[in-house]
């Protein structure tokens, strides 16, 4: 029997709480308490907490997705540039479409669609 049974608690209470007392000696241990406090501090309150790491991992995934997008975009633009450097007819086509340039014997007609607004119904009561 434990030396504290007679001094602090009665025998009935001791028998009732005996299964819990095995674990209490580990829970009351100062090293255990300090370790639990340290783990909680590192997980939630520290500058390098788990929450911060999760947010940074999310940013890394987003930046990697952006990187793959821009690499693909760069490949497409390089292909267009190579086409422009090798083919003068392509340069002429782009100049005609985007900048409305023309040859001396041509006329250019620019047709724009008008946007019609519907009149708003007003009710006078």
Give the SSE map.
Elements: H1 11-27, H2 30-45, H3 50-86, H4 88-99
Helix pairs in contact: 3-4
Concise account of the structure shown:
It contains four helices and no strands. It is mostly helical and 125 residues long. Helix 3 (50-86) crosses helix 4.
Q: What is the share of helical residues?
A: 55-70%
What is the global morphology?
Answer: elongated
| Tally of distinct domains | 2
Protein structure class: mainly alpha
| Topology pattern, helix = H, strand = E | HHHH
Low-confidence stretches: none
Number of helices: 4
Beta-strand fraction estimate: under 5%
The largest sheet is:
none
Describe this protein's structure.
The chain has helices spanning 11-27, 30-45, 50-86, 88-99. It is elongated and about 115 Å long. Helix content is 66%, strand content 0%. It contains four helices and no strands. The protein starts with 10 loop residues before the first helix and ends in a 26-residue tail after the last helix. With 125 residues, the chain is an all-alpha fold. It has two domains: 1-46, no CATH class; 65-112, no CATH class. Helix 3 (50-86) crosses helix 4 (88-99). The chain crosses the membrane at residues 26-45. Keywords: Membrane, Transmembrane, Transmembrane helix. Pfam families: DivIC. It comes from Faecalibacter macacae.
């Amino acid at each position: 029997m434990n030396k504290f049974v007679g001094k602090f608690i009665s025998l009935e209470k001791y028998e009732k709480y005996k299964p819990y007392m095995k674990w209490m000696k580990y829970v009351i241990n100062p090293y255990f308490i300090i370790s639990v406090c340290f783990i909680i501090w590192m997980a939630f309150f520290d500058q390098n907490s788990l929450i911060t790491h999760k947010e940074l991992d999310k940013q890394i995934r987003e930046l990697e997705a952006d990187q793959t997008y821009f690499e693909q975009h760069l490949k497409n633009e390089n292909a267009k540039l190579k086409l422009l450097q090798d083919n003068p007819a392509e340069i002429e086509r782009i100049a005609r479409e985007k900048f409305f340039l023309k040859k001396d014997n041509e006329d250019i007609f620019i047709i724009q669609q008008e946007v019609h607004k519907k009149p708003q119904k007003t009710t006078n009561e």
